[in-house]
Amino acid sequence: MPIRWMMAFFGAASLLSVGIAHALAADLDAAAVNEATFVEDGARPDGAQERSPLLVKAQVLLDRARFSPGVIDGWPGDNTVNAIAAFERHHGLEADGKLDARVWDKLTRGDEAPVLVSYEITGEDVAGPFLEKDPEPGDFAYMAKLDALAFNDPVELLAEK
What we know:
two-stranded antiparallel ribbon; 42% helix; mainly alpha
């Protein structure tokens, strides 16, 4: 039976394996995230302890726009507030770090692609090659002896996809 993963189309590898899997574990699913639309105070990235599909979508869209919100998990937090503030500054908006209608409009303008999609893991994904040991950062002598700088395992490879 094939294994299916929910994947977000964004750049940060560790976010997939940690954040998205956690975000989808309970009350969030791909349809809820992909169909989320802005509702005033719906995401609450102001520190309130509330997880939402809207915030997962906003976090993925921020990451796509190259404003990393940290772990994409649907939880509000400082990294998300900082990413929103940086996004606002970049777009000439008041940088208050709040997800409001102005920010949502700019985040979603021209980006109709779903933020979460199904992906079927293939035999090629798990075939490797994978490294036998993770090189120490800066251990260029060890890395120079390798045939290739490969991923450590299939999870790391899939996270990069």
